[in-house]
Design goal:
The complex is a heterodimer. By secondary structure, chain A is α+β, with helices and mostly antiparallel strands. In chain A, about 25% of the residues lie in helices and about 40% in strands. Chain A has four helices and eight strands, in the order βαββαββαββαβ. Chain B has a single domain, classed as Alpha-Beta Complex (Peptide Deformylase). Chain B is about 15% helix and about 30% strand. In chain B, strand 4 and strand 5 form a beta hairpin. The radius of gyration of chain B is 15 Å and the shape is globular. In chain B, about 45% of the residues are buried. At the A-B interface, strand 5, strand 6, strand 7 and strand 8 of A face loops of B.
């Protein structure tokens, strides 16, 4: 079964999700995974779609475009591997970063995470405007294969955050089994 | 008494560990009174810590009277040098903060706590509480450790934008 990734983004309005997913339903496509969010007034969708063998990138693209013609969506469809490693191992940690907005906060912190083999599973950023400045906040969930590396990672994050002039904290992502 | 200006995220005082008081002086009592006036004068506010008005002193005030999530309620609490003696039964609730305008977040905190500190008269008091008052106590004590709710956020999808503070 061919698998595709569809990305669509456009000025937020009523009905974007309904139109796009209806178009996919017309083609009997199955939504395997998705993330959707309003980004600064633009609604952004990333969908992983499983389709039948007679459906290709062009037919998905044209069907979505025809159903969403007045929505000013930027749409892209690409075939992707249907079997990739989805390794969810490792101890989970939540990292919080916040400070005065400037270029390089995400790059600096994520470079430290990469060097310490902390795998990013999820990341959200928000910009908030205070009376005097713009403030950047970033929250990540990461996995460490060896939680014995936590102390080194924490030291490196504190050093980098000090260089960047931001606050940074890391803590275990607890979950309660019920 | 006076309404004090609340400092916002980015002000370094919010990242500092607040200074404990040796004894509760007249100046400390005046600061406590101003915090109470600022809290009651700010719609939606149920608590405020001294660092939130730019003063790095280990003091907060809290009053969750009448809030729909309140169970145990001690009325107005004024506490210097607070410490958490015990904390149990964590729950996740969305909370906001006067010093973090435009954002709220889901935060896991204990719903049953015992907290000890100095009251406005300088005598040691122990407060045992639960539910919303417990959350308020822990939120304010975090301020005194230089922590904001963003440092306790439950995950990347637990941070939300809002238009304004209540």
């Amino acid at each position: 079964m061919p698998r595709f990734v569809l990305t669509a983004i456009g000025p937020d309005s009523y009905g974007i999700v309904a139109r796009v997913t209806s178009a996919l339903a017309e083609l009997n496509c199955n939504l395997a995974d998705s993330t959707m969010s309003n980004l600064s007034g633009h609604f952004a969708m990333i969908l992983v779609v499983d389709a039948s063998s007679n459906v290709d990138e062009k037919s998905i693209y044209e069907t979505v475009q025809s159903r969403c013609s007045e929505l000013s969506l930027l749409v892209d469809v690409k075939r992707i591997d249907d079997h990739v490693e989805n390794d969810l191992d490792g101890d989970r940690f939540v990292v919080s970063v916040y400070g005065t907005d400037r270029p390089g906060i995400v790059a600096g912190i994520c470079d430290v995470l990469a060097v310490h083999h902390a795998n990013i599973y999820d990341l959200t950023t928000r910009v908030i405007d205070t009376e005097s400045t713009s403030f950047y906040t970033m929250v990540l969930e990461v996995a460490l294969k060896d939680s014995g590396d936590l102390a080194k990672l924490e030291d490196a994050l504190l050093l980098k955050s000090s260089e960047l002039g931001v606050s940074c904290s890391i803590r275990s992502s607890d979950s309660d089994e019920l | 008494m006076a309404m004090l200006k609340v400092v916002e995220i980015g002000n370094q005082v919010l990242s500092l560990v607040a200074q404990p008081v040796g004894e509760v002086t007249k100046e400390h009592k005046l600061l406590a009174n101003d915090l109470v006036e600022t809290m009651y004068g700010t719609p939606g506010s149920v608590g405020i810590a001294a660092p939130q008005v730019g003063v790095s002193v280990s003091l907060f005030v809290l009053d969750v009277s009448g809030h729909k999530k309140t169970n145990t309620c001690h009325g107005l609490i004024v506490l210097f040098n607070p410490e958490v003696i015990s904390a149990s039964n964590p729950v996740v609730i969305r909370e906001g903060c006067m010093s973090v305008p435009h954002l709220t977040g889901d935060v896991r905190r204990a719903s049953e706590v015992v907290v000890r500190g100095l009251g406005i008269d300088g005598k040691v008091i122990t407060i045992e509480s639960d539910a919303f008052e417990a959350r308020g106590l822990l939120h304010e004590i975090d301020h005194l450790a230089g922590k904001l709710f963003i440092d306790r956020i439950d995950g990347p999808h637990a941070l939300y934008k809002r238009k304004r503070y209540l």
